[in-house]
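hey can u check if this looks right to u? its 109 residues, i copy pasted from the old doc so theres a chance i mangled smth
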Amino acid sequence: MQLASFPFQTLDWSSIPKEIHTGTTGEAYWQIFKMGNIRIRKVEYSPNYIADHWCQKGHILHCVEGALETVLQDGRRFTLLSGMTYFVGDNDEPHQSMTKAGCKLFIVD
């Protein structure tokens, strides 16, 4: 990732509306801020959320609260607990997200 030149900024997340994305089960609530070609998101998954797709987008994803289970298309499973981060590049390993109790994430992609 290359961060192009931009001035110092702050962001008040309370000013960013939430978008609802329905999963196979449960819902995801996204707040999105775009800065050039960088997307910065706060995401909250409801309990029993399962994504309705295999994601191929690269992310730097930090679990702020709760636990996130990520399944790679090859069958490997990873659990991210609060305070943990994962990284994956664009088109590297398709992945699907799910959570039993819900979680809050901070994502840069």
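Strands lie at 19-22, 27-35, 38-45, 49-50, 59-72, 77-81, 85-88, 95-99, 103-108.
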